[in-house]
Amino acid sequence: MVKPTVATSFFVCLLLLSACTQENSANTVPTANNSSEQTQTLRIAAAANLSDVLPKIIDDYKASKNTPEQHVEVTYASSGKLYAQIKAGAPYDVFLSANQDFPAKLAEERAVNATGQNNVAHQNDATYSPFTYARGQLALYSITKPLDKLNTASLTNVFISDINSKVTIANPELAPYGASAKAYLQSQNTYPILNKQKRLIQAENIGQAFQYVHTGSVDYGLVAQSQVIAIKAKPEQFITLAPVSYPEILQDGIVISDSNLAIDFTHYLRSKAGQQHFLQAGYLPV
Question: What is the pTM of this model?
Fold first, then answer.
């Protein structure tokens, strides 16, 4: 009587152990995959003018994918500085520039490298082509000088007659918004005067230029329209410059890694939902 009882108990234990093993195995596989997706980090190199609008776009992107825990790291700087970092090997997945030149250079360099490797191109070279995602605007901003009674035609007289005032722009060599600001001042014949009188303050990027004006360190600043919209600036604090008065600010991006997540995010960036954020933030339609 003892042996059958032992054998029966042993057999039952085996059945229970097998069932538990199968259940654990079935639960483990999906959990591991989900964990892998959630822990993949999307690294974005973004022009400084995007610091107000991009976080909202990222939040909506994650909400649309139902992935609130998705890791996204964004580095904001001048487009020229970010381009130099990418050239030096910085591990970004997406580069969102404030102009078209830097992404075009990266695409051209990719094509040259592919040719140098026995014409074996990247498997997704078509995907890694530059794309236009935004069109920026310039604004004149001040918290020390009322601007509501001025018009763009009288700005030249204001800059020249107010000899104690200082004007800031982003570095034209590194920041596309700075290059457009310089072109605007040149068209108004004020750039050489401000430069000669050492009243023109160059910031590293458009974010720093905005801070110089916002803190009252300088009287006037040529900044991004999106920046004054973001802080809900008063009407007397800024003037939106006519888009025809400076070179068009078309902002291009490019995917620079093998990340499918990066490709998916840039598709959302260009979607109707993504573009709506740019329009609300003070950008012009692409």
Answer: 0.79
